Amino acid sequence: MSQWTALAKLQQQAGQKEDRKHPRFRAHQMNCAKGEVADFSATGLRIVYRKKLKLEQGDQVMLELASPRGILRCEAVVMWVRQSSRKEFEVGYRFLSEDTHKQIRLFESGFDPLSIGYLDN
What we know:
Layout: H1 3-13, E1 25-26, E2 31-32, E3 35-40, E4 44-49, E5 60-67, E6 70-85, E7 88-95, H2 100-110
Antiparallel strand pairs: 1-3, 2-3, 3-4, 4-7, 5-6, 6-7
């Protein structure tokens, strides 16, 4: 059983429901050069920016994510861009690498297993 599946089962047992193929988790103290990672899953992540970047759906980018546990570089494609408030923009990314090691490394660098990090939407 993968780490992702085990965590999803623990959440279901705790009464939380996740309809996604890969559950999402809140990122704690994880950011990148111009934004903050809001949440992530085994296949992608969402970053909140304070100003709009010149990104469009389909753009491929190299992300450098920093957390107290180190720096992780990963290649991703922009899936969507939206304005979440007057001064905030969100970008959804999908990882391009199928390398599980990088995905687990992201998990280790940003997920706090003692927190309630589950998202419904």
